Amino acid sequence: MSGRAARWVTWLRDRDPDLAATRRAARTALVMPALFALCTEVLRSPTMAGYAAFGSFSMLLLADYSGPMVERLRAQAALAVAWLVLICAGTLAAGQLWLAVLGTVVVGFAILFAGVVSSVLAGSATALLLAFVLPVSAPVPLSQLPERLAGAGLAAAVALPAVALLWPRPVADPLSAPAAAVCRAAAGYLRARASLPGPDGPVSAADRCRAAADRTAGSRTDLRGVFDATPYRPTGLSASSRALVRLVDELTWLCAVLVDRSDYTDEPPGCDPAAHTVRRAAARVLEAACDLLTDLNGDTGPLRADVEGLRAALAGMEHSSTVQVPAEHPGGTSTAEVYGFIATLDVSFRAQEVGFAVLQIAANVDTAATAWQRSWPERLLGHEPGALAAPLAAARERAVAHLRPDSVWLHNSLRGAVGLGIAVYLAGVTGVGHSFWVLLGTLSVLRSNALSTGQNAVRAVLGTVAGSVVGAALLHLIGHHGTALWFVLPVAILVAGIAPAAVSFAAGQAAFTVTLVVLFNIGQDPNWHIALLRVQDIALGCAVSILVALFFWPRGARAAVHKALADAYHDSAGYLGAAVDYALGHHRPVDPDPQGREAAASARRLDDVFRSYLAERGAKPLSLACTTTLVTGVVGLRLAGDAVVSLWQCEDRARVQAVRADAHRAVLGTAAQVTGWYHEFAASLGGRSTVPDVVPLWPEGATRLVESVRTELSDAQGRATPVAVRVIWTDDHVDAARRLQPGLADAARAQARAHHNWPRKGRPR
Asked: Bridge-partner residues for 714, per DSSP?
């Protein structure tokens, strides 16, 4: 390879690291001109040629699916079927202007909102919209519908083998490798912690712990970077995809748990051998999970065997923890003595917390691997491994979570649908030639707020002007030698596919304009005047986008971030309170699942808002570091509720015994204080109050808890019972949520100061 070619390859890899855009562009450049030539030169059908060209363009360049080959082909086939259905709907609706406008609004909203269900549908939105926009913008007699369908069917027939044979996408899920790295690093940290004090002495072991903690933090950062890099949550409807995406929250929480420490002790007294056994068992589970994530076709047997070993270690630690609690009654009730009593279980609690997190991670990795290894008939029939929710149930749950007035995804879907409807109306009223360009301009630049839309509109118009000038120049140079356009077309398609990712949105718009100019002039005398007229159509579409963005929730994602954070903290605090109430609040416990589902739905809405904010261009007054801290805090609060529920699930007899003791009132009192703070914190994020002061340690509640354990939850020898250990662990989970508060309060105050000072740093008024 020459030096110049090597530099080009390096430049391209810097901008398109996995060569995804290059792969799609190369496939399209090979397939689309051949289809267009077949329809124009052999079949002599311009209508069929147009739909074959745009169909292959959409199916190969605008949609790219992940997963095993059978899943990619199934998604590609579903896209082809959807194209045929949408072409029929668009052709039928195009006859009457009012019906075309209404159909565009309804279909556009359905397609855009469906993206909330999975990344597969979200990534296919533009391709699906083109399938409806193309026929609805060009009314024809129904007699031409078969030709349109034939063109799209021909494109689908060629796209399916092209996806399988022409530079197929790597099978690996993008989250698998970084998630495996976190598992490996966390396992190393757990082994280092379990070796304290090690054979080389405590100093050497401490150094190994610090190094392992640094590696774990770095791996977690890489995982979050991959997760946040996409404009929508990277999860599809497949069982393996839905299982893998849960790992991000769970691994984030595990990394936070590994380095967490209590306020009342720097290092818990004594060394609990059972806790170290749990750590080593958890490390083995994480290593087995890492092996499976690296190769999802691997054997799940070792992971399941290690999970059983971890469960046995946790059960043994719960039993042995009863002897860790001092049997003698303390001589006084000072704060130090009370917290010293609780601290005797701190090592075992942290091991229990880690064990719960690792079991959750292992369950999702097992489900992902089992789903990945299903046979082709099982995949075809949608057979779901384990207890994972069925695809339709999962889709319904995600969609319902966004059917709220404050959902940014709902705002964007309505905005896009109304914008396209107005574009169809204006194109029909003004009678512009090739009204498809007006809808294309609307679709290209509509963003989540007026400022971003305006920036995209300027880039779109400039790119269209540049593309039109280049296209007109090409047509002028070619003159009457129209055959030369066949040689220009593959190059134009290749550049149009690579330019948006490798250069800029404007460059992509220019290259796409050149591609369309070439397409519209093949088979007829080249006319460079028509190329320049396309600028006014694109400009009209951009104007529609800006107008709609000004009137539909113009503040954009930034204004919704704090509202979504407030809702997420409010619902997650409610779930934690319901979990503690389920454990210790009633003789007949109330199921906390509804609050858990609502908290999960709020977390998904927050995730979508945060992604929209990250995707917006322009200045960002919110500190990304502080915002990320606040988003991560929601994960810790919600998973603390999961841990409490898991601790007491199927333990009705133990729960009744705990409720009869006075200890449950102490834990409920602490939980009320902690969750009350989070409700106030949520109100402050919504702008209704100031950030509250953090909840300090509550000695009265701790004293009450210790006295109850001593008197009511002890056996005949004066030792704490397993129920007492669970009560103290429940209180520790609540305290872990309390320890999140200082960092969250600092981040919220920093956000408030940054937002207050931003206008003086040049924010446009």
From this structure: 720
